[in-house]
Design a protein that fits this description.
Helix content: 55-70%
Order of helices and strands: HHHEEHHEHEEHE
Structural class: alpha+beta
Shape: elongated
Radius of gyration: 26 Å
Number of helices: 7
Strand content: 15-25%
Amino acid sequence: MSEHFELLDIYKAVISVIAGLILGFEREMKDKSAGLKTITVICLGSTLFSIISYKLAGNGDPTRIASYIVSGIGFLGAGVIFKSGFTVYGLTTAGVIWIAAAIGMAIGFGEVYMAFTFLVSAILVINAGSFISRKYLPQHLNKILKLQLNEDNFREKTELMEQIRRFASRAEEIAIEKKDRHITLTLEIRIKNSELVKFEQYLVENEHLLYFSY
């Protein structure tokens, strides 16, 4: 039982737990679906698979078992990604799961300095990326907009679409419905955050609209 055991394996396990805790703590603080325990266990498990792969390979390929971590971790990553409307959530958490597995593998193969170099890089990207995106990149929202008009006011549709395109960088009609002399238009719009308040004010003050939602 002890022919493959080394004291170094304990050090690798401890380092792997520390790395997983650091990554997991960042996700836990943001209340994500994969948090402290999940990320730590993923990192630790990847380290164990790498150690076993290296020790039991003999004269064979020492990366054969560990290589399946890359494909296997994809199933866990896919489990935290979900879509609501036009917005996709969980991509960053899936990326953290992926990098946690990679860091665990690096530790398992004894590349501790490499592992912590990429750990620090990942933490910097996750935190600085959000700041840079908010500060320097234009923020857009994709929304489904529903508008209701009286049948008598349907002739105002063209002017209404022109006004909406003043605020939205994209406005496409995807459905139209008539019921009880009411016309309901469904639009897909893409609008900047900075234009949202003015756009909402325009919709509220538009006397031709009976109802709107997005």
